[in-house]
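We modelled the chain as a single entity of 310 amino acids. Its sequence is:
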Amino acid sequence: MKYCRYGFLFIAILLLAACAGRPPNIVVPSNPPKPPHLIAEPRVALVLGGGGARGYAHLGVLQVLQQAGVPLDLIVGTSAGSIFGAVYSDNHSFDKTYRIMMQASFWSFADLNNVPNSSGFVQGYHLEKMLLANMQAKNFSKLKNKLVVVSTDLKTGQVFFIQSGPIAPAVLASSALPGLVDPVFLYHKILVDGGVVQPVPVAVAKQFHPRVIIAVNISQPLDPKIPWFSYSIYSRTYDIMWQNLVLQNERGADVIIWPAVGETGTFDLDDRFRLYQEGRAAALKQLPKILALLKQKHIQLHTPSINMVQ
């Protein structure tokens, strides 16, 4: 995973910026609430991968799938994918999701720790505030479809996915970029970005036995330039390891959508409209395969919404 080329500038801005207030208190139970009972297997699961600002490509994918009438009964998101997945699951409207996410600024996601903290520069309360302000549902049980948010247990190194309880803290945990955002203490666990172990969490989606899995991979391609200096060589080997992790993660998906995100870094929000367009173009390219697969599986388009949880 490559970090933004403006990373040092980002940190400098954080050190100079003023803090905003915390969001309203979110009551989080000490243990995860019992997940809702699925009364029907999901027809289609959409897996939204992590990648910071590259998550704006998810908007284009959501638009194409909604316009084609693809029934999305389950959305599994990690990191940026959890943010877009949560907002869309709340309203089931591409237009509303597009408006909310396109109006979001850099400071909708970033904030400064109130006190110096060696575990991260960012607390994450701006992200929580943004979700609370723009989503009607505050708990997973109130969403319009099944949503699963993927994080990493910092103690065990294992994936920890959340599917019940308050949404905002779960999304923050899934998006807590190690070294930059404070780890999130939730359900007796120390949680960080889900992309650490499952950048494209197809394996999590498979646990719910959907009939079709569509995965969106927003990772960056390897830089065609071969490095010759020590740090750049180290950085490239890290990128190679990351690419291999991503490729392993996406195995098992029926369709993989890979938008051409290019060199867009984690915090390059100025690139959001191009990323949306790339997501749309990549989804349109895969749409014939998706429609053929749904026909083969006898999954109808534009069917009335069914009650997936109880």
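As a brief sanity check on the tokenised model: Confidence is low (pLDDT under 50) at residues 1-24, 304-310. The chain has nine helices and eight strands.
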